[in-house]
Amino acid sequence: MTTLLKLNILGNLSQQRCYLSTSPILHSWFVKLTNVTQVNTEAAVPKHTRKRNYPLTYEQRQFPKLIGHTKTWNTFNTSNLRDGKRKAEIVSDDLFLRQFIYGTWHSLFVTELIIKRRHNMIILSGLVTRTIHPRRMYFLIGLAITSAYMAKYIVRDIAAYVGPAKDVMSLAKVEIKLDAVPVGKNAVFEWRNKPIFVRHRTAQEIAREQGVNVAQLRDPQNDADRVQKSEWLIVIGICTHLGCIPIANAGEFGGYYCPCHGSHYDASGRIRKGPAPLNLEVPQYVFKDDSTVVIG
Fold first, then answer.
1. Are 125 and 7 in contact (CB under 8 A)?
2. Which residue spans within the chain are E strands per DSSP?
3. Rounded to the nearest 5°, which phi and psi values hold at 36?
4. Boundaries of every domain in the chain
5. CA dihedral in degrees (163, 166, 168, 172; nearest 10)?
6. Are 92 and 76 in contact (CB under 8 A)?
7. Which stretches make up the Rieske domain (predicted)?
């Protein structure tokens, strides 16, 4: 007769119930690794002595080398057969129970397990937890540490390969001390391999550039839109025509002059004459304080 099993399991929040029809194929799926405590079993099929007057004891049924393995399933059974004689200490289906419980859930608390077989019934209750062999545990711990160590260097190498070079990062922002630029002079700094013109404008230059009629300009821009502080003009020193570097404090408009093709810029960096189509580019910058500016 097919063995019927009923397993009542107490989960974290609810009680689950599972009915399984067991077979030799199903048994082969299960692994024998459980730790069982507080086991009480009743109504197992007893094996009798030669005279068939009393059931065998637990030690009589098991080989010495198996006693230590199966002792946790020490049971007390009562026969349900008619005219059954008495209770006897016995171990029944130890291997099957271990395989079944281990293969059912990862970790569970067994409250009732019923195996119905003809006229006899086994009721087993106890705490069951899944365990891992120490050798397997050492392997898993070592694998986890090795994987984390390798992942660290892989991520670092990928970030170093994809990210910008160190020299580029170092030039991403440039801090300039404005105290080194006197009034009426222009200083040149390097930022991202580009020349940066920092011009300390005089009051006359500021008034002149603010009074320009922008409607007459090729690339119309007010002076106030190109500076954050009126006395400081900060532009990229590359001509917008073909990329030459203009000369500061030169040209017909007192700003910058490109000798390559004759482009003239005023003291606000706006194109006033020549082939250049656009004004000198204004980089992104912020004043850290009154005497320090950070470009980038």
1. no
2. 4-10, 15-21, 34-42, 75-77, 88-90, 108-117, 120-130, 174-177, 186-191, 194-200, 232-236, 247-248, 254-258, 263-266, 271-273, 285-289, 292-295
3. -115, 135
4. 4-135, 169-295
5. 90
6. no
7. 199-294
Question: Which residues are identified as catalytic?
Answer: 261
Selection from 123, 125, 25, 146 nearest residue 77 by Cα: 123
Instruction: Give the C-alpha separation, 280 to 217, whole Å.
Output: 13
Higher pLDDT, 109 or 199: 199
Rounded to the nearest angstrom, the gap between the alpha carbon of residue 123 and the centroid of all alpha carbons in its chain is 47
Residue type, 100: F
Q: Which two tokens stand for residue 93?
A: 């289906």
184: its two tokens:
């009426």
- pTM score, whole prediction: 0.44
CATH architecture of 169-295: 3-layer Sandwich (2.102)
Q: Which two tokens stand for residue 190?
A: 């390097």
Paired strand residues for 48:
55
Which pLDDT score, from 0 to 100, does residue 105 have? Answer: 40
Report d(CA 150, CA 145) in Å as an integer.
9
Report the C-alpha gap between 61 and 77 in whole angstroms: 14
- CA–CA separation, 135 and 142 (whole Å): 11
